[in-house]
Amino acid sequence: MNVLSSVARQCLMYGRSLRYCAMGLALIGAGLAQTAQGAVLRQGAQAFTEQRLLATMTEMYLAKHGYQVKTSWGLTVSMTRPAQLNNELDMVWEYIGTSLIEYHHVDELLDERQSFQRVYDLDRALGLTWLSPAFNNTYAIAMPEGIAQKVGNPRTLSDYVRYVRETPERHHLFAMDVEFDGRADGMPGMAKRYGLNLSRGDKRSMDAGLVYLALQAEQAEAGVVYNTDGRIQAFGLRVLQDDLHYFPAYNVAPIVRSDYLAAHPDLAPLLKALTDTLDESTMRRLNGSVDVEGRSVSQVARDYLVQQHLL
Question: Where along the sequence do coiled-coil regions lie (predicted)?
Fold first, then answer.
């Protein structure tokens, strides 16, 4: 006998009023409906394609396992971390380098394994748990291939800085997204490490998508790109080697409030099954499906999950 029928039977046995029974049945029915809908997971996602894909895949995949994923879209780095610490978000897909440098101000050189262990320990103390990491989507500096060939074929960031230093008469337009311009792991630190001196007029902050368009059209001499972006190859961009190893590992992983994980112990193995399928070439292809081929985020996410037998 289920709970609803049991309550109805007791109403009849004890002569409860119809109004009382109706109220009781309504309240219990609402509670059962909430249970049937599953646990609510509050997810935050940043505004660029990769984050929208990861968040959309999370929504679709976890829905199959009984979760209600409610996503706050278009957030910035400065918004996601405070929201998690204030218990306004349960989970975000975060990048190891962002947490190490932007949140914890760790600037020593570490390999991927060391970076993950350091960030795991630092954030665990704050009540946040890093789950299994996926691909490394580090920052990179790229040039249009046509421009690179005309200015001495720079292959490394040091080559590019040397070229800038030796040609002060030229206009060296450098394009970057707004966050990179001011982040601790962005332009200020990179310029200091490499001795890159650009005038204020040479530095242009813009939407991340516009950086790629500026490079494709050769309206910018160099600019900030993301390692797993499908537009690098599609637009014929040359990625310069970070020969002084400024950019740390930016492996992405779900970072979840520890109290939420304790209440939902199935979440970690579920998300590991997803992250285990994602590597750099796969994510570059998925990003390119959206940004180059013009397919919708939802369609690309759904097709991928079906291909991986996760949906």
Answer: none
